[in-house]
């Protein structure tokens, strides 16, 4: 992608590439089937991962082709840990693993306490060496930002120092919330939507990403 395919403000990159925007439009469409929704989430995540990993460290290497020696490059920095936030983030996992097959996977499950409205961890299983890895958090909808901020704190608590987030759609409120406490975390999205409604859904959004991925409604 060229820089014309993205628009970056501080740590937020919106991927404006026509393929991404076309697929996002299909994803939002209420008539899109569960099967197609899942496929579109996968394809969009592939394209966003390309952008989100563009600063991974690499180094020059010598390569012997069948004809002669040449120079190439290989990724040389930290290894990757990819951590979907349950449940909808799991729909994005395979796409990242197909591009970064050696990545380790961590899972972070959070629910919202209906009294305090704060996220509560109910399941966390992370790679033991996550402190030495570049962490990619996955959450299709960056809505209030409370669960993303909590997930960042979860991985930081066990030593992660390099954390980035891939989301499909963000609300301005969610970006502000995450960057209030974690201004260093890069966020890559396909769109920043208008606002949250009064029950925390993104408008215009795409509805409940988990329900649409798994056909639970
Ligand atoms: N989670 C979703 O699945 N959709 C939203 O709009 C907000 C949070």
Cα distance spanning the termini: 36 Å
Shape: globular
- Strand content bin: 25-35%
Q: Into which percent range does the helicity of residues fall?
A: 25-40%
Q: Given this structure, which CATH class is correct? A: Alpha Beta
The major β-sheet equals:
9 strands, mixed
Tally of alpha and pi helices: 6
Question: How many domains, as an integer?
Answer: 1
Instruction: Give me the count of strands.
Output: 16
Radius of gyration: 18 Å
Overall average residue pLDDT? 94
Q: Which residues sit in consecutive blocks of at least 5 with pLDDT less than 50? A: none
User: Any guess at the CATH architecture?
Assistant: 3-Layer(aba) Sandwich
| CATH domain topology | Rossmann fold
Bound molecules: uracil
Structural class: alpha/beta
- Element order: H for helix, E for strand: EEHHEEEHEEEEEHEEHEEEEH
Briefly summarize what is shown.
The chain is an alpha/beta fold and 217 residues long. The chain is 30% helix and 32% strand. It has a single domain, classed as Rossmann fold (3-Layer(aba) Sandwich).
